[in-house]
Amino acid sequence: MKTLQVELGDRSYPIFIGQGLMGNAELVKPYVKGQQVLIVTNTTVAPLYLEKCKAAFAEFNVKSVVLPDGENYKTLETLNLVFDELIGQRFDRSCTLVALGGGVIGDMTGFAAAAFQRGVNFIQMPTTLLSQVDSSVGGKTGVNHPLGKNMIGAFHQPECVVIDTETLNTLEDRQLSAGLAEVIKYGLIQDPEFFEWLEANIEKMLNREPEALSFAIERSCQDKADIVAKDEKEAGMRALFNLGHTFGHAIEAGMGYGNWLHGEGVSAGSMQAVYMSKLLGNLTQEDETRIQALFERAKLPVLPPSVDEMSNDKFLDLMAGDKKVQAGTVRLVLLKSIGKAYVTGDYPQEFLEQTLTNWR
Ligand SMILES: NC(=O)c1ccc[n+]([C@@H]2O[C@H](COP(=O)([O-])OP(=O)(O)OC[C@H]3O[C@@H](n4cnc5c(N)ncnc54)[C@H](O)[C@@H]3O)[C@@H](O)[C@H]2O)c1
Ligand SMILES: O=C(O)C(=O)C[C@@H](O)[C@H](O)[C@H](O)COP(=O)(O)O
Ligand SMILES: [Zn+2]
């Protein structure tokens, strides 16, 4: 088992990474406050892992709630099912929630924990590659609104993150690829060495070779933890994790939540950011080809929906609601080079329009 630490003063927490960690009662015990534990999961993950997860909390009063599965259920309405359980079963302020599932379950459980009685503890047990490399770390929690992704939420850090890499054995190939989009993102924004490692090892990851997956999960979590420690609430550099997301979130909302996976939106959206970075003279054609090749090898889409499926006006309208917008300016994460990203609202509008028109 490998242990990393997210350094946030008295709210610092460990990330445990290893095979078969899910049922480990001794590992999680120190992070359970009080006696009441509510495991939040969904209809896909429950039959696979709920009993195993429950076993780790057997010495507590453990209950569970099973939500419908899917990005289209990441809503305030679904969140009420968690509050119904917490309030109906008389959970008190000293309870602990456990998020057992992918990023949707993690984001919703974290938000429920942030809001229930103005804040209770929670533990992240991520079971998808995407949630293991990204969403379980850093404390961004929330739900979607029809007009925008993650529009309603809170920063609320977990007590610990338990990454059982064995859970990846049951994950569908398309979901594994979606997770790779966020992995590649770390290489692009801040870690050129990792980008090169991915170029050499991406097929090993698709083949689920345990050493390759473990290395990439550890490196991703470390890269994320480093920036979160410096900028917990996205006052500055944390926004770099949004590479491809202003475009990608527009794709997810515009095409109907769940039709494009989050990671697929990030992949196509990152290529839109790459194209625009090339228009600005930051990246060369060779860089663009190299980045595109890696996303394609990871079996991810590199082009956004066609103009017929999603017009430029629809893109621009959805992008105008992005959380990074300042005084009406859509700020984008762009690349200076492979491994170096920056946030800017200072670009010619026609470059954005050319990107939306030409990179299709
Ligand atoms: N909070 C953050 O920092 C952050 C970061 C990145 C993404 N996100 C959010 O995360 C969400 C995407 O997360 P995701 O990609 O994990 O999607 P997801 O949670 O929808 O999970 C993908 C699918 O895999 C299933 N699944 C989960 N674990 C499984 C397993 N071990 N075996 C088989 N099936 C399994 C799920 O039930 C679901 O059908 C989006 O809502 C995105 O906005 C949040
Ligand atoms: O942790 C962060 O910060 C991120 O931006 C990680 C992203 O991968 C993630 O999709 C996040 O939810 C997007 O942030 P948002 O603030 O645009 O919703
Ligand atoms: Zn993301």
UniProtKB/TrEMBL annotation:
<dbReference type="GO" id="GO:0003856">
    <property type="term" value="F:3-dehydroquinate synthase activity"/>
</dbReference>
<feature type="binding site">
    <location>
        <position position="245"/>
    </location>
    <ligand>
        <name>Zn(2+)</name>
    </ligand>
</feature>
<feature type="binding site">
    <location>
        <position position="182"/>
    </location>
    <ligand>
        <name>Zn(2+)</name>
    </ligand>
</feature>
<comment type="function">
    <text>Catalyzes the conversion of 3-deoxy-D-arabino-heptulosonate 7-phosphate (DAHP) to dehydroquinate (DHQ).</text>
</comment>
<feature type="binding site">
    <location>
        <position position="140"/>
    </location>
    <ligand>
        <name>NAD(+)</name>
    </ligand>
</feature>
<keyword id="KW-0028">Amino-acid biosynthesis</keyword>
<keyword id="KW-0456">Lyase</keyword>
<dbReference type="InterPro" id="IPR050071">
    <property type="entry name" value="Dehydroquinate_synthase"/>
</dbReference>
<feature type="binding site">
    <location>
        <begin position="127"/>
        <end position="128"/>
    </location>
    <ligand>
        <name>NAD(+)</name>
    </ligand>
</feature>
<dbReference type="InterPro" id="IPR016037">
    <property type="entry name" value="DHQ_synth_AroB"/>
</dbReference>
<keyword id="KW-0862">Zinc</keyword>
<feature type="binding site">
    <location>
        <begin position="103"/>
        <end position="107"/>
    </location>
    <ligand>
        <name>NAD(+)</name>
    </ligand>
</feature>
<dbReference type="Pfam" id="PF24621">
    <property type="entry name" value="DHQS_C"/>
</dbReference>
<keyword id="KW-0479">Metal-binding</keyword>
<dbReference type="Pfam" id="PF01761">
    <property type="entry name" value="DHQ_synthase"/>
</dbReference>
<feature type="binding site">
    <location>
        <begin position="69"/>
        <end position="74"/>
    </location>
    <ligand>
        <name>NAD(+)</name>
    </ligand>
</feature>
<keyword id="KW-0057">Aromatic amino acid biosynthesis</keyword>
<comment type="similarity">
    <text>Belongs to the sugar phosphate cyclases superfamily. Dehydroquinate synthase family.</text>
</comment>
<feature type="binding site">
    <location>
        <begin position="167"/>
        <end position="170"/>
    </location>
    <ligand>
        <name>NAD(+)</name>
    </ligand>
</feature>
<keyword id="KW-0963">Cytoplasm</keyword>
<keyword id="KW-0520">NAD</keyword>
<feature type="domain" description="3-dehydroquinate synthase N-terminal">
    <location>
        <begin position="65"/>
        <end position="177"/>
    </location>
</feature>
<keyword id="KW-0170">Cobalt</keyword>
<dbReference type="InterPro" id="IPR030960">
    <property type="entry name" value="DHQS/DOIS_N"/>
</dbReference>
<comment type="pathway">
    <text>Metabolic intermediate biosynthesis; chorismate biosynthesis; chorismate from D-erythrose 4-phosphate and phosphoenolpyruvate: step 2/7.</text>
</comment>
<dbReference type="InterPro" id="IPR030963">
    <property type="entry name" value="DHQ_synth_fam"/>
</dbReference>
<keyword id="KW-0547">Nucleotide-binding</keyword>
<feature type="binding site">
    <location>
        <position position="149"/>
    </location>
    <ligand>
        <name>NAD(+)</name>
    </ligand>
</feature>
<feature type="domain" description="3-dehydroquinate synthase C-terminal">
    <location>
        <begin position="179"/>
        <end position="325"/>
    </location>
</feature>
<protein>
    <recommendedName>
        <fullName>3-dehydroquinate synthase</fullName>
        <ecNumber>4.2.3.4</ecNumber>
    </recommendedName>
</protein>
<feature type="binding site">
    <location>
        <position position="262"/>
    </location>
    <ligand>
        <name>Zn(2+)</name>
    </ligand>
</feature>
<dbReference type="InterPro" id="IPR056179">
    <property type="entry name" value="DHQS_C"/>
</dbReference>
